[in-house]
Amino acid sequence: MANTIERPLDLLNMSKGKEVLVQVKSDRQFVGTLKAFDIHINVVLDNAKELENGEVKKSIGLTFLRGDTIIFISPASTSK
Amino acid sequence: MANTIERPLDLLNMSKGKEVLVQVKSDRQFVGTLKAFDIHINVVLDNAKELENGEVKKSIGLTFLRGDTIIFISPASTSK
Amino acid sequence: MANTIERPLDLLNMSKGKEVLVQVKSDRQFVGTLKAFDIHINVVLDNAKELENGEVKKSIGLTFLRGDTIIFISPASTSK
Amino acid sequence: MANTIERPLDLLNMSKGKEVLVQVKSDRQFVGTLKAFDIHINVVLDNAKELENGEVKKSIGLTFLRGDTIIFISPASTSK
Amino acid sequence: MANTIERPLDLLNMSKGKEVLVQVKSDRQFVGTLKAFDIHINVVLDNAKELENGEVKKSIGLTFLRGDTIIFISPASTSK
Amino acid sequence: MANTIERPLDLLNMSKGKEVLVQVKSDRQFVGTLKAFDIHINVVLDNAKELENGEVKKSIGLTFLRGDTIIFISPASTSK
Amino acid sequence: MANTIERPLDLLNMSKGKEVLVQVKSDRQFVGTLKAFDIHINVVLDNAKELENGEVKKSIGLTFLRGDTIIFISPASTSK
Question: Which of B64, B68, B71 would you mutate first to test chain C, the one with the most C CBs within 10 A?
Fold first, then answer.
């Protein structure tokens, strides 16, 4: 999967429809299915869940996340 | 609902007239009916209430929220 | 009032000449009559008062507030 | 004075040559005569004094204040 | 390696396919293979690992890091 | 001196070659001779000294200060 | 050296190939040979070392530093 990535947004494009982990500022984490993103790295997650210390804290369903607050986005299938 | 979202702003467009949960920086949360938004993610909520630890803290009615302070916006009907 | 709002700035336009509550970063709040605003959400309040825990702390008269520090603006007449 | 303000910068224009109170981030306050401002809300104060808890802490004379750090600017004559 | 660097992005270009150390704000560090970057310094790391005090805290696989949160990026082979 | 200032940058222009006090975020202060500035308020100081509580903490010679971190710049000769 | 500086970036240009001290936000300092910079004040240092309280904490070799985090850059030869 990594070999076809030429620009950073390629990874987000390849992750559409897949589960991703999103780390935002102030120690919040979200997991959910990546539905959409734009060049500001605004993203929409489906079946989003907020995590605290790796545990599900709250289900928040469909969610729009502002790009400005995001630290990293990682497709869940690639973590070990 | 999630299947018709191609760009992040589509979710906000579909959420107009519906109740949304808005998380802003410094741990403030608002619920209210989404009346309007723009590309800066400035939003107007009707019947907005400020929450603290999930409890209603204050009713603030019609409210303009600056996009720059927003972390996420989630239509209330999609949370579980 | 809410039904004629199509864009977020419409609410600010409708609130001109009326009392608004302005929440800024670092827990400051102001109430005053909205005299003017621009697209950066810079605003001018007349008869502005700074609040602390809902109590008037100081009268600061005519005041220019930089948009960048604003979290929300709410017309006072719509809160309950 | 308030009735001739159509845009936020009008208040700054009308305050030239007058004493203003400038609140910046991290709880610093300045008073001084407003000499100049630009669209970034950079301002120059003459006879500027830094305040701490409403008391003069230091005289800093002619001073350039970067707009980015400013929360509000209020002509001193309008506070009560 | 350093002698062929004329612009800062040259170093990132030369580091593609190599292991880099990425320091982000709020004391997080990542190591991983640099797959891609853009002018916003958004980067994609492969086999990314989050570090805490120099120890591997978590493997997060392929990861998109937003440029806005990055302090420095250093090719691992050049540290001593 | 103050009477010829029409725009904020006029003060910086008039202060070239003179000693200025520069306050930056996170409570750092610098004094030095203003050699150059640009519209981003990046400045170069010669014979710069970092101050702590008004005392010289360190001499850092010629120094480039990024505008983004600056709160105020004041020509030393105008403080009383 | 200072007399030929007309714009702030002139100092960075004259410091290429020389040792500089770079202060970034959140109290980190780096020393290293300035290899490159751009208008965003992104810089590349060679033989970079991270300092803590003036002591070398870690050698990080060739390093790309994002301009947005930088407070000041000072050529080491000019400090006293």
Answer: B64
Closest Cα in chain A, distance from residue B60 (Å): 23
- Mention every residue, 6+ apart, whose C-beta is less than 8 A from residue F26: G25
The CATH number given to whatever domain includes residue B41 is: 2.30.30.100
Q: Which residue has the tokens 């991983």?
A: E32
Q: What CA–CA distances, in Å, run from D34 to B76, C42, D15, E52?
A: 48, 18, 7, 49
Q: Which two tokens stand for residue A79?
A: 């973590």
Quote the number of domains for chain G.
1
pLDDT one-digit tens code per residue, F32-45: 999 999 999 999 99
Average pLDDT over residues E14-42: 94
Confidence band, pLDDT 50/70/90 cuts, at residue E1: low
Domain-located, residue B30: yes
What are the backbone dihedrals phi and psi of residue D44, each rounded to the nearest 5 degrees, phi first? -115, 130
The tokens of E69 are what? 């949160």
Q: Residue F25, Cβ neighbours under 10 Å: how many?
A: 16
Best D72, D78, D80 residue to mutate vs chain C (most C CBs within 10 Å)? D72
Predicted-assembly ipTM surpassing the 0.90 threshold = no
Cβ(G41)–Cβ(G70) under 8 Å? yes
R_g over Cα of chain C: 12
> How far does the CA of residue E59 sit from the closest CA of chain A (Å)?
6
Name A22's bridge partners: A30, A73
B-C C-beta contacts closer than 8 Å = 70
Residue B37 lies in a domain: yes
Q: Residue B80 falls within a domain, yes or no?
A: no
In G1-80, which ranges are E strands? 19-24, 28-37, 43-52, 55-65, 70-75
Range of C42's domain? 2-78
In single-letter form, the type of residue at position E6 comes to E
Chain G positions in Cβ-Cβ contact with residue F62 (cut-off 8 Å): 1-2, 5, 11, 74-75, 78
Question: In the block, which residue shows the tokens 């999930």?
Answer: B54
Touching chains F and D? (3+ Cβ pairs < 8 A): yes
Is residue B23 domain-resident? yes
pTM of the entire predicted model: 0.89
Angle value at C-alpha F9, between F8 and F12, nearest 5 degrees: 110
Query: Using CA atoms, how far apart are residues G54 and G57, in angstroms rounded to an integer?
Result: 9
Residues 9-68 of C with CB under 8 A from B: 9-12, 21, 25, 41, 67-68
Structure tokens given for F6 = 């029409």
| Residue E80 in this model has a pLDDT that exceeds 60 | no
